[in-house]
Amino acid sequence: MTTPGTIQWYGDDFKKAILNGADDAMFAGGEVLLEGSQSKVPRFTGRLVASGYVTTKAKSTYVFRRGYKKERKPEESGVVGVGYSAPHSHLVEFGTKKMRARPYLRPALDELKTQIGEKIVVTWAKLIK
Question: Domain for residue 6, yes or no?
């Protein structure tokens, strides 16, 4: 003979915990990418390296500088943006007709995919507990 019991649903609480930690976890992964890409940036004056930033809907490391690009902030939670605000950042990354490309962000992403994913998972796990 079985006794009746109660079942508790924690799915909504779990979903809320995941969504609350989304920005922090993605930000941590973005920091890994930024650090990795900064080691690959060609250095002439150091302005390009200094213009790197990580941003989510809730957090950002962007620093306003006159004449630099505006921050490109994600519109929704759980999305991270990693970029460089120096006016010449895209020219160095992709090249021009007269200058060869010297990519720094794309190779860093290719190299660090697993480390970025691990950092996101570890940060999310800490926030959920």
Answer: no
